[in-house]
Amino acid sequence: MSVLDNWKQWEDFLADRLHHAQNEGMSEGAVSNLAFQIGDYLANQVEPKNEQERILSDLWSVADKQEQQAIANIMVKLISNNGSR
């Protein structure tokens, strides 16, 4: 089973990677840029596996670049308090 199949597992996976990046000294700007790149890749290359991913994909598809960056930043905020540290 892929981490993309279950929203909670995906959220935990992202949170763990975020905390690791922060512990290694990755800047907030770099995290934000990476989140945007991941969001863009997923929206264009990966079929949503659950309701939450479908909603994000739909939002991403109608958003302009500035709004997509905001979605990416919100996802970083959402996961920043989840996962292991």
UniProtKB/TrEMBL annotation:
UniProt-listed InterPro entries: DUF3243 (IPR021637), Uncharacterised_YmfJ (IPR024702), YmfJ/YflH_sf (IPR038292)
Pfam families given in the database record: DUF3243
Gene3D superfamilies according to UniProt: Protein of unknown function DUF3243 (1.10.760.20)
Superkingdom of the source species: Bacteria
Record-given protein name: DUF3243 domain-containing protein
Organism: Neobacillus bataviensis LMG 21833
